[in-house]
């Protein structure tokens, strides 16, 4: 699901909770954590431990696909994953699903992925994450395509934007600091693109300041997934 949202230079590995029962392609998560990873969740509840382990299993499988020896994925500033030298990446997990996406740092400047249950946001959440223009656009989309939970899709898109933003800047990006437009693919009702206008000075990549991030979204298997990729040579 995540892989279809990303360019060919990105390797994505995902795991669904029901994949083993269905005999589908998901990888078997690595059964053990590295000691330094174990130390990060020594006091975690079982749900947190399971999600932490499975998503790192996905990340290590992605490393292998890129020809990089599997290794620990620790947390850096603000909990962002610290990747092996020469790699960039992003991870996400929610109930019953985990995914990791990695690329060589020579191929992309940054990327972000996010997955959420395809359910409405709690009523009090949308006002805290959406700009007035975003709320208006979501209402228009919902009028034409009411089966998509556009509020949840917007939340996921903002998460992907932040995950792509932070490795380039090392700074916090508030929900109100990116104005996201969502588009549907022609002839499709469950996939499309997204464009995020940065309302604060964007990162400088390849000597150029970036004012907009582009990405993709899809709804499948009870989930909404989004991605953002930042290529080189973008102005």
Number of helices: 6
Major β-sheet profile: 5 strands, antiparallel
Shape, principal axes of CA atoms: globular
Distance between the termini: 29 Å
Q: Percent range for helical residues?
A: 25-40%
Structural class: alpha+beta
Q: How many DSSP E strands?
A: 12
Q: What is the C-alpha radius of gyration, as a whole number of Å?
A: 17 Å
Mean pLDDT: 91
Protein described:
It is a single chain. With 235 residues, the protein is α+β, with helices and mostly antiparallel strands. 29% of the residues lie in helices and 30% in strands. Strands 6-12-11-8-7 form a five-stranded antiparallel beta sheet. Strand 11 and strand 12 form a beta hairpin. The protein starts with 10 loop residues before the first strand and ends in a 5-residue tail after the last strand.
What is this entry, summarized?
The protein has 235 residues and is α+β, with helices and mostly antiparallel strands. It has helices spanning 19-22, 35-40, 46-65, 126-129, 132-144, 150-169, and strands spanning 11-16, 74-75, 81-82, 87-94, 97-104, 110-117, 178-184, 191-198, 204-205, 208-209, 212-220, 223-230.
Topology:
Blueprint (H helix, E strand, L loop, with lengths): L10 E6 L2 H4 L12 H6 L5 H20 L8 E2 L5 E2 L4 E8 L2 E8 L5 E8 L8 H4 L2 H13 L5 H20 L8 E7 L6 E8 L5 E2 L2 E2 L2 E9 L2 E8 L5
Antiparallel strand pairs: 1-5, 2-3, 4-5, 6-12, 7-8, 8-11, 9-10, 11-12
């Amino acid at each position: 699901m995540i892989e279809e949202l990303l360019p060919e230079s990105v390797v994505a590995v995902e795991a669904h909770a029901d994949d083993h029962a269905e005999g589908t392609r998901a990888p078997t998560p690595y059964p053990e954590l590295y000691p330094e990873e174990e130390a990060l969740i020594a006091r975690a509840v079982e749900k947190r431990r399971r999600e932490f382990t499975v998503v790192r299993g996905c990340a290590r499988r992605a490393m292998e696909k890129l020809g990089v020896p599997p290794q620990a994925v620790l947390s850096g500033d603000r909990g962002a994953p610290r990747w092996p030298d020469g790699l960039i990446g992003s991870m996400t997990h929610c109930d019953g699903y985990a995914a990791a996406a990695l690329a060589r740092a020579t191929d992309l400047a940054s990327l972000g992925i996010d997955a959420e249950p395809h359910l409405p946001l709690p009523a009090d959440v949308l006002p805290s994450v959406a700009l007035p223009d975003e709320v208006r656009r979501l209402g228009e989309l919902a009028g034409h395509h009411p089966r998509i939970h556009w509020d949840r899709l917007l939340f996921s898109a903002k998460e992907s934007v932040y995950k792509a933003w932070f490795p380039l800047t090392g700074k916090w990006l508030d929900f109100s600091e990116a104005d996201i437009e969502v588009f549907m693919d022609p002839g499709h009702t469950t996939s499309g693109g997204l464009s995020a206008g940065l309302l604060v000075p964007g990162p400088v990549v390849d000597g150029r300041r970036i004012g907009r991030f582009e990405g993709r979204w899809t709804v499948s298997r009870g989930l909404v997934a989004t991605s953002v990729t930042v290529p080189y040579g973008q102005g």
